[in-house]
Amino acid sequence: QVHVAESGGGPVLAGGFLRLSCAASGRTLRSYAAGWFRQAPGREREFVAAISWSGTNTYYADSVKGRFTVSRDNAKNTVTLQMNSLTPEDTAVYYCAARSRDIDYLTFYVGEGQYDYWGQGTHVTVSS
After folding, report:
1. pLDDT tier at 28 (50, 70, 90 boundaries)?
2. Residues 82, 19: contact at Cβ < 8 Å?
């Protein structure tokens, strides 16, 4: 069984920052690529950021590029999303996703269907 859990969400004022963490664990989970997605009220879930298993390669949605940074610490088995200069448009439930099949050190994934495991999400509310 693989378990993915996000933490670090909450309310924040516009212009502020939050740091989301994702922990993935499981007996069969030895290595994985990771991604962050978000779903705002009344909207479909959308891609935010992705990181390869090694952490070498990352990719961002245009809407967060330059403000968000994804990183990972494989020794601690965590993936982090640092979110700066937040705006009310960033208000959403943020999901962490993990992919363990057919991965290599360098590839990241941006499609929801490319991920195997999902967390329950953490709420981020940005007020002006």
Report:
1. low
2. yes
Three-class SS state of 16:
coil
Alpha carbons within 13 A on the beta-carbon side of 105: 2
pLDDT, tens digit (0-9, with 9 covering 90-100), for 48-87: 999 999 999 999 999 999 999 999 999 888 999 999 999 9
Handedness of CA 91, 92, 93, 95 (dihedral sign): negative
Q: Which residues contact 124 (CB under 8 A, 6 or more apart)?
A: 9, 10, 12, 18, 20, 38, 83, 86, 90, 91, 92, 93, 94
- How would you classify the pairing of strands 33-39 and 46-51? antiparallel
pLDDT in tens, 79-122: 999 999 999 999 999 999 999 988 888 999 999 999 999 999 99
Cα separation values, 73 from 20, 39, 46, 116, 127, Å:
13, 25, 24, 20, 30
Distance CA 17, CA 67 (A): 9
